[in-house]
Design goal:
heterodimer, A: alpha/beta, Glutaredoxin, 2 domains, five-stranded mixed sheet, two-stranded antiparallel sheet, 6 helices, elongated, B: 188 residues, mainly alpha
């Protein structure tokens, strides 16, 4: 009798382990489905300034010296990527190397401007720590408000004629590339591209 | 009617204490390894919490994983189990406390840093409850166990219980992460 109980107990634990493994597999599948249904490209959230509209003009002090001009016809026929970030946003930090390499690779047609708001001392420390001296860096709540930035990191691509070419949430290198590609294709966001592909 | 004494005996039984010790040791070992491998992400998570003064940040980057590894090793040895379990419970409760502060401040979108460098997961009440339960298990292992001779059957149970515990922990984590993702979708 005792032996039967022992055996039954071990068998129960083995079955429990089997069930737990199956539930784990199911839970993982749900997790993977969640990954899949996340927006794949730069999702547009800002509703105030639409692609194709003229970008508002700003001239603001640059934390790295001099002044930054936004909007209007860019100097040397360059487009501008206005990248909104914050020292307290972990995703922004993971994108800094991507921005640095994009600035070098795309410098023929693009200048990258970093934008944030808040305490200058904090941002100086951020610039120092992450080696952001070569980027124009501006602190202004007005710019963020003009584009209605609600989520970070957010990219706004202004073309060489001073019009907003594309904008969207940037969580990865792919999102950044899709902003550039949207400009090349003349489409506002990845959603439009998906729509254009569906119609084609 | 359950006899309260019987509950105390079962909780103090070496089989249960050994199984929870093995489970907690693997958890702490994995946590320490993650933090040492992805130091940049771990630093970002620590900075995100914003609870440590900058001067303590650098030492904490080393001290936390070392403490976790020490707890993992100590839990596996009978001589050091009580002390290591206490250290482990302290760590778990400290993380729970930090997350609770963040929730109280309303910064619910902050990445919890549960898996530095991996998928980001916001701080949530479920994670605090999870940590509290783990801390209770650790505290249970602090008590000196009634020693009795362990037979083959007992060892089989220890291994099975530890495995079930580890898989259950993985399930809970996955479900909490999906829950956060679901909430995000519902809010958009």
């Amino acid at each position: 009798m005792n032996e039967a109980l022992l055996i039954s107990s071990v068998v129960s634990w083995v079955l429990l382990l089997g069930l737990a493994v199956v539930v784990y597999a199911l839970a993982r599948q749900i997790g993977v489905l969640h990954e899949r249904i996340k927006p794949v490209g730069a999702l547009s959230l800002g509703k105030v300034i639409k692609p194709g509209e003229t970008a508002p003009s700003f001239t603001l002090p640059n934390l790295n010296g001099g002044a930054v001009t936004l909007g209007g016809t860019g100097a040397a026929n360059q487009a501008t990527l206005l990248f909104f970030l914050s020292p307290t946003c972990p995703v922004c930090k993971t994108l800094l190397p991507v921005l640095k390499s994009a600035q070098v690779a795309e410098r023929r047609w693009l200048r990258i401007v970093l934008a944030s708001d808040g305490d200058a001392v904090e941002h100086e420390a951020f610039i120092e720590r992450h080696g952001l001296r070569e980027f124009p860096y501006l602190l202004s709540a007005e710019v963020g408000m003009a584009y209605q930035i609600g989520k970070l990191p957010y990219g706004v691509l202004i073309d060489e004629h001073g019009r907003v070419a594309s904008h969207g949430l940037v969580n990865s290198r792919e999102h950044l590339d899709s902003l550039f590609e949207a400009k090349v294709l003349g489409l506002a966001s990845t959603h439009d591209r998906a729509g254009a592909q569906a119609r084609a | 009617m359950v006899n309260p004494n019987a509950v105390v005996v079962v909780l103090g039984d070496p089989v249960l204490v050994l199984a929870t010790s093995i489970g907690l040791a693997s958890l702490f070992f994995a946590a320490a390894l993650h933090k040492l491998q992805r130091r940049a992400a771990f630093r970002a998570a620590l900075e995100g919490y914003g609870l440590l003064p900058p001067a303590l940040l650098e030492p904490a980057l080393w001290l936390i994983p070392v403490a976790e590894a020490a707890a993992a090793l100590g839990l596996l040895m009978p001589q050091t189990r009580s002390l290591a379990a206490l250290l482990g419970a302290g760590l778990l409760l400290a993380y729970a406390g930090a997350m609770m502060l963040v929730v109280v401040q309303g910064r619910r979108t902050l990445d919890c840093g549960c898996s530095p460098g991996g998928a980001s997961q916001p701080v949530s009440a479920a994670l605090i409850v999870r940590n509290a339960i783990l801390a209770l298990l650790a505290l249970n292992a602090v008590r000196a166990t009634e020693s009795r001779e362990l037979l083959l059957y007992d060892w089989a149970l220890v291994v099975l219980m530890a495995l079930v515990g580890i898989v259950l922990y993985a399930i809970v984590n996955t479900v909490i992460a999906s829950q956060a993702a679901t909430r995000k979708i519902a809010n958009e």
